[in-house]
What does this fold into?
Amino acid sequence: MVLAVASCGGGEDPEAGGGCSPIEARFQTAWNTVLGAKCIACHTAQGVAKHSKLRLTPASQTGWESANLEMLRELARYQVDGDSVLLVKPTLRVPHSGGQVIAPGSAEEAALVALVEGLESGGCTTVAPAGADTAYFAEIELLDAAMTYRRAAIVLAGRVPTSEELALLDEGGDEALPGLIDTLLAEPAFVDRVAEVWNDKLLTNKYDRGHDAVNLLSKEDYPQRKWWEAEGVDAAEKALADRHTNHAVAREPLELIAHVVRNDLPFTDVVTADYTVVNPYSARVFGIAVETGAGDAAPREGAASFTDPADPTEWRAAKIPGVPHAGVLTSPMVLNRFPTTDTNRNRARARLVWNLFLATDVMRVAERPIDPTGIADHNPTLFNASCTVCHELIDPIAGTFAAWDATGRFRPPAEGWYPDMRPPGFGAEAVPFGEESRGLQWLGQRLGADPRFALAAVRTAFTLLTGQPVLEVPTEEERVALGEVGAAARSRAATAQTAELTAVAEAFVADGLRFKSAVRRLVLSPWFRARDARPGLAAERLRELGDVGSGRLLTPEELDRKITSAVGVAWTRGWDERHALRDPETYALFYGGIDSDTVTRRLTSPNGLMAAVQERMANEVACRATARDFLYGEGARVLFPHVEPTFEPLDINGFVIPEAEARIRDNLRHLALRLLGERLADGDPDLEALFELFVDVWLTGRDAVIADEEDEWLPWECQAKNDPLTGEELPEGQRIDRDRSYTVRAWSAVLSAILSDFRFLTE
It folds into this structure.
């Protein structure tokens, strides 16, 4: 949010050194040190102190700063012995149910004193509409249109820009960006990326192996769960079903989210949809009749139409008979991945709802030491203030899951919900009597209408683009670990980021909650486009800006897509050509990926093992791609459009061949632009380094071949013996399996160097 300073009390100008500090600055200091770090644990609309006059609006909600300032200005007028109640209660000069929160004479008290003085003076309190704090980015250099689009294309669609797209950006600049971004958002790879990010949260891909997903389903509820084992199903259909059915069932919640995004439906459907999605194989599992047709205009109960009933990539919305759908909330995969017990009573599921759909980590809400000797109540989760601060949030939502058992079966309990817990509901509102079995449908509607739902979706979009978690104002424990300077920098960065995401969330709502619109706005924001900080900034300011920008190590899946698009070949391992960076049995886990089972958190900083994977990838991909690319005609080559294997920079006497050298440099520029997004001018150090590498490898290798110290035959893995388009084996004379001049291996060395460059491995 942009906080506009109107004027200071008494007409003093803060820029002129008149001694008046803007109230917004004072509020931010008090928020970062006390209000948002300590007081908010209890003093919210749902907290244990919800009935007090101090009720803080969390930073995750739209308009939080202006709402808090208005409330604090009113509360600051209440005094005890001449001092504001805002000062005497937290220092325990008067009784305070939360005990002493800050010590007299501390920096926290000084921040509150400054805030109260500013509130009492009545100055500097004008708040402008929500939006990005442009001043925060004043010292940041942004990517130009071409580089912004390149980064977006790789992250969103898993590909490098085309030459036509780059030409449009060179001509149209920033004005051409929105339209081109929309083309990326319409590509299937974007929807795949969305599902990938949501699996990082739901982890339901755990069941995408063997028959794990199908076996989770009850035979009583789904008697056709292994329909392909029935008599009358031929061997070919059985083989296909055994291959595709479990995958389809495991992917059900992710494909529902993909369906919402792909079709530009309101994102609230993720929690409110009265349907799920199935393909021809999972439809039979769920008792949905498979019909041949163009697809249904609206989901039907018990039936779905498919253009090709054997195509596993066709997904259709449908209703499972007898199931009161509420988007992913009622997905059997999600309910199994986040099960419940007799003692947990759906609280883990409720925490998931708060985190994913309300942008709130309830474990941070009351992150403070608890004295176990002070918990002597018969039912502390209902009556003890140390427990209710969380349980007032969690337990009502937990109750809305009452009709779904530990294995995700719809089994409304005959005896009702636990009487020693808060009744099922959301906030202060309870599920209407008689509607308990439809509690999740009731909850989904309220989640979708809550302003925090939009912010939660925007936060997910932010992580999709940047690979970074959303910044939070540090807790007291984190402040100690960061130190005073580090905590202040983190708080300022979190405040600026929240302002940007809040502004995007407001526009997201205005756009009809279309997820693509939120992604488009974030791509155009400084948080995605930041390239570097201007030189000469103070260390404290650099620390504050450390999280700006999306430069990061690509995930295994993202790097796999980038390699395939930029180089023209995939990095594969094994007889079945599995992609090495996607396969947990090869390099996916070694490179920081997850298996959604025992490994559920990605590594974002490279280690020695990951560096070894990077080096191996660069060598193997370069080996496989170089000769293969030369098989294409000159106009169709991805990597080497400007050279032939016969082009050597020097003749046998060591004299420069000008035309060949010029063409080699042109191709080096092409590789740098395609693989790194760098435009290298004549004399650029990177261009010269690549040229020297090519010449050194070529000369050394050529001389070794002439002296019979090295074989002219390319290693078997590096030979190109099959037509790259048809896959058919080529005649002897058309293969590239020898390299007597050593140019193929020299180009392979250059390609390997670029593929192992941090600029290729990050984005």
The chain has five domains: 9-130, 135-186+471-544, 201-265+275-319, 346-449, 556-571+606-761.
